[in-house]
Amino acid sequence: MSLTGTLGKKDYGYAILLESDEKYLLNQRVARIIPKSKVGAKYILNILQSEMYLNQLYMLPSGTKQANLSNDDVLNIKITYSPDQYERESIVNFIYDVSNSTDNILANASNQIQKLQELKATLINASVTGKIKVS
């Protein structure tokens, strides 16, 4: 998770999940969060990326230009989670299903917009060159 950003902007607190065994270097303004095995990394990632968590995180830093979070800032935000592992896994699966569905819808809409823009350009070209009559 990134611990530094611009005060007043939401450009810090960004969390990702690394699922490989590769070794990575962290600088002094990046936190490595290792969840307890019973909670689950994907569940914790969804919490760290949630509006509920991030809104609390963005209220913490002070200063004039740069927002700096400490490890304690990140770890002391109160969160709620289900003690039931099956329920946590169901929540994660639901979030990923909805996210994938939304991504597919957005990709489809983007493709349709691109095709319409190509059609528009073709029609403009045909009307300018006189291939079609516009009345």
Average pLDDT level: 87
In total, the number of strands is: 2
The SS-based structural class is mainly alpha
Question: Strand-residue fraction?
Answer: under 5%
**Helix-strand topology string:** EHHEHH
Count of discrete domains: 2
What is the overall shape? elongated
Number of helical segments with 4 or more residues: 4
Distance between the termini: 59 Å
Q: Which consecutive residue ranges, at least 5 long each, have pLDDT under 50?
A: none
Summarize the main sheet: 2 strands, antiparallel
Biggest sheet strand order reads 1-2
What is the CA-based Rg, rounded?
23 Å
Percent helix, as a range, is 40-55%
Could you provide a short overview of the structure?
The chain has 135 residues and is mostly helical.
What does this structure look like?
This protein is mostly helical. It has helices at residues 41-48, 51-58, 71-75, 85-128; strands at residues 4-6, 66-68. A two-stranded antiparallel sheet has the order 1-2. The longest helix is centred in the C-terminal third of the chain and has 44 residues, at 85-128. It is elongated and about 70 Å long.
Characteristic terms for this protein:
135 residues; mainly alpha; elongated
Question: Topology of this protein?
Answer:
Blueprint lengths: L3 E3 L34 H8 L2 H8 L7 E3 L2 H5 L9 H44 L7
Antiparallel strand pairs: 1-2
